[in-house]
TrEMBL record:
<dbReference type="InterPro" id="IPR052904">
    <property type="entry name" value="Acyl-CoA_dehydrogenase-like"/>
</dbReference>
<dbReference type="InterPro" id="IPR041504">
    <property type="entry name" value="AidB_N"/>
</dbReference>
<dbReference type="GO" id="GO:0003995">
    <property type="term" value="F:acyl-CoA dehydrogenase activity"/>
</dbReference>
<dbReference type="Pfam" id="PF18158">
    <property type="entry name" value="AidB_N"/>
</dbReference>
<protein>
    <submittedName>
        <fullName>Acyl- dehydrogenase family member 11-like</fullName>
    </submittedName>
</protein>
<feature type="domain" description="Adaptive response protein AidB N-terminal">
    <location>
        <begin position="74"/>
        <end position="199"/>
    </location>
</feature>
Length: 200
């Protein structure tokens, strides 16, 4: 009895909601015909706007930017080093920076790109719930570590091959390395700070 009574109330309830529209009852289903006006400026309302209704694929394409040797391309950097450094020091340093600039746009750039896609992760627990706190790094991240040691990105500033100009050589090399390093310049900065404290 309750069910039949509730069912008898449903049409009245819906009709009250749709009191301003035309409602048709068929087999206990009620549908409302509603006329919606298109807002000004939408497709189909203004004549001639149908050409923007669907996206269109054309023949336009754009070449990806290519990274070139940043040391040779940065005129302000090269002229500043030439002005600040003694000539014999500049000749030695510029050869190293030019060679390193070529390595950056090739091997280092690709490693840094892949390192960004596979960033280091902290694994706090193993599969059995034991605390391990392992930092998982990719092959590219490990390779960037090796290259940093090979190029002396930290050691140059402390070996003092060029005496007081060694630090400038180191910072310039890091300047070329950092944008393409996949953020490996972050642990290098911490290593540099630790080395400075130990030396003091």
């Amino acid at each position: 009895m309750f069910t039949s009574g509730f069912a008898s109330l449903r049409p009245h309830f819906i009709l009250r909601i749709c009191s301003r529209k035309t409602c048709i009852t068929r087999n206990k289903r009620i549908s409302c015909s509603i006329n919606i006006k298109r807002p000004l400026g939408t497709a189909g309302y203004l004549q001639g706007s149908s050409e923007f209704h669907h996206s269109k694929s054309g023949s336009f394409y754009q070449d990806a930017p290519s990274l070139e040797n940043q040391f040779l391309g940065d005129v302000f950097l090269t002229t500043s080093l030439k002005r600040i450094l003694p000539s014999e020091v500049f000749n030695d340093v510029s050869c190293d920076l030019e060679r390193f600039g070529e390595r950056v746009v090739g091997e280092i750039y690709q490693l840094g790109y892949n390192a960004e896609l596979n960033q280091p992760k902290l694994q706090q627990y193993d599969a059995w719930g034991r605390r391990v706190d392992d930092i998982i790094t990719s092959h590219e991240w490990k390779r960037l570590k090796e290259i940093s040691a090979e190029e002396g990105l930290i050691a140059i500033g402390y070996e003092n091959k060029h005496e007081e100009w060694s630090r400038l050589h180191q910072i310039t090399k890091l300047y070329l390395f950092s944008p393409s390093s996949g953020l490996y310049s972050c642990p290098l900065a911490m290593t540099d700070g630790a080395a400075k404290i130990l030396k003091a």
